[in-house]
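Quiz preparation item.
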């Protein structure tokens, strides 16, 4: 993944990134490299992370296990590597502009389950629809059932929202609160559960330190929730969460990559 393995072997604060054949060095090329890498991670062609245009937030691509057949064997490893990279950036106070949704980071930090308000971080219209359902009587002919349509290898397929509910169960005033809770869980947890686990393994690998894990997570969660987009630009706000040592600077050289807004952008040696 564009030299990420090479980066993770170094103290990110102590390296200079230099693009082969170019004169720029120090912080400028480093910022550009991470910007290009973040953009590549939510390139729709890879179906790794999805950028929700309306909110600007990023989540792992949903329902991949249903949508792609078979799921690439490398996907858990890639997600774990991204988790390591985000954790390493926190430790090194290096900006990584991947605007991960707060609800995803909350799950990575083993925080409380997502609430209806969190649904607005990826789909404000769906959040408003679910709130309207809670606030108004359900008409008999509304036509909502306890199911959800998800991408499949060919088109869409309908799955039950819960193993103990028939997907044809109509939604009424009596069960609408559970229906809304299951919809939130489906979109923000169930659709990306495997990727949350993989990302968390990598993240926790990098942020392990002298403080108890629950203390670090509470501190990180407080800092993340205070940010508008909870982008991985934690930098200075996370400085007190971890002990950061000093080291000698190293220079890494990356191969030239295209600066165009489309396509995969630059690429570098792994």
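Solution:
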């Amino acid at each position: 993944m564009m030299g990420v393995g090479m980066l993770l072997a170094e103290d990110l604060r102590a390296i200079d990134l230099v693009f082969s054949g170019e004169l720029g060095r120090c912080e400028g090329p480093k910022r550009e490299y991470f910007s290009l890498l973040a953009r590549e991670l939510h390139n729709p062609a890879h179906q790794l992370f999805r950028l929700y245009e309306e909110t600007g937030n990023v989540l792992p691509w949903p329902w991949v296990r249903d949508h792609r057949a078979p799921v690439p064997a490398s996907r858990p490893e890639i997600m774990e590597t991204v988790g390591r990279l985000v954790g390493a950036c926190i430790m090194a106070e290096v900006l990584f502009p991947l605007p991960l949704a707060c609800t995803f980071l909350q799950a990575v930090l083993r925080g409380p389950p997502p609430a209806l308000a969190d649904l607005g971080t990826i789909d404000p219209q769906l959040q408003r629809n679910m709130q309207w359902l809670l606030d108004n009587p359900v008409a008999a002919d509304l036509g909502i059932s306890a199911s959800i349509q998800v991408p499949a290898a060919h088109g869409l397929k309908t799955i039950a929202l819960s193993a103990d509910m028939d997907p044809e169960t109509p939604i009424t005033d009596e069960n609408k609160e559970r229906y809304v809770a299951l919809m939130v869980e489906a979109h923000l947890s169930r659709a990306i559960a495997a990727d949350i686990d993989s990302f968390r393994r990598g993240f926790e690998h990098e942020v392990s330190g002298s403080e108890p894990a629950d203390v670090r997570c509470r501190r990180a969660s407080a800092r993340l929730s205070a940010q508008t987009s909870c982008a991985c630009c934690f930098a200075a706000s996370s400085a007190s969460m971890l002990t950061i040592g000093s080291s000698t600077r190293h220079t890494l050289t990356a191969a030239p990559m295209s600066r165009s807004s489309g396509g995969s952008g630059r690429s570098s040696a792994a």
